[in-house]
Amino acid sequence: ITAAVDAWARGAAALPKPWQPQKPVLPVEGMRNVLITSALPYVNNVPHLGNIIGCVLSADTFARYCRLRNWNTLYVCGTDEYGTATETKAVEEGLTPQEICNKYNAIHTDIYRWFNISFDYFGRTTTPYQTTIAQEIFQRLLTHGFLQQDTVEQLRCEDCQRFLADRFVEGTCPFCSYEEARGDQCDKCGKLINAAELKNPQCKLCRGIPVVKPTQHLFLDLPKLQERLEPWLEQSWATGDWSANARYITRSWIRDGLKPRCITRDLKWGTPVPLDGFRDKVFYVWFDAPIGYLSITANYTDQWERWWKNPQQ
């Protein structure tokens, strides 16, 4: 309190001069360097106050605080643009997925500008850097033996000549008999669903009746990592600032044993899988989208690795 009173009495003139980083903002030797990423808003709708308050505004407040502390701060965000939700919206509006992304990216950008959110850079995930970095990470996983192939039973619409992503299927929930359940979850009872489990399934595009057929997919071999992950988690829990909820969920996954996780989808709109036998597939958005933080930084500066591969600073 005494120090605060003293600082107040000396006035603003006695404060350290505000740090003015060079453009682009890059880590500086000897300074505290802070990279802030706000959760990437999905591009298929107009942002509302929940989107702003849920991630963008809180990250913006922290970014402003860091700059006031004269910490060298980079704050990036962007629209998440690949996946089924974009394809669904494109069908609804009679546009191509790229046109949907262009339309709503511009709307998002304008709204955040109106709210005066202090992004250093607001980008998007449909860029050449996204493809390059995602495919490079995939190739390294493949080289180091962290991928496996498996057959998945999936619904296929013979009229549309395509395997149907979860959001392109509707039917009766096998748990509560709600007649408009989606292929990924039921909005009435809230339970997660495998699309092949739906009763009376229908293709949302043509209202045809799909059939169950096998298709090959690639999986992250997460069980291979469990032995190395557990001691890392123990150390991180002891030294980091994990929320109680994050600890609880992570412990439950470890307790039940990690399972292989599918990283490919039978879609057109996404980052292509660069492997023979899978070139007609794209990466599942949950594999692809987090890489957007890296690719958005790469679109901001070609020295992006100084932020993402530089633990010393």
UniProtKB/TrEMBL annotation:
One of its GO terms (cellular component) is aminoacyl-tRNA synthetase multienzyme complex. Keywords: Aminoacyl-tRNA synthetase, ATP-binding, Ligase, Nucleotide-binding, Protein biosynthesis. It catalyses: tRNA(Met) + L-methionine + ATP = L-methionyl-tRNA(Met) + AMP + diphosphate. The keyword Ligase applies. One of its GO terms (molecular function) is methionine-tRNA ligase activity. GO terms for biological process: methionyl-tRNA aminoacylation. Residues 34-311 form the Methionyl/Leucyl tRNA synthetase domain. Belongs to the class-I aminoacyl-tRNA synthetase family. PANTHER family: METHIONINE--TRNA LIGASE, METHIONINE--TRNA LIGASE, CYTOPLASMIC. This is Methionine--tRNA ligase, cytoplasmic. It comes from Fregetta grallaria. The lineage of its organism: Eukaryota, Metazoa, Chordata, Craniata, Vertebrata.
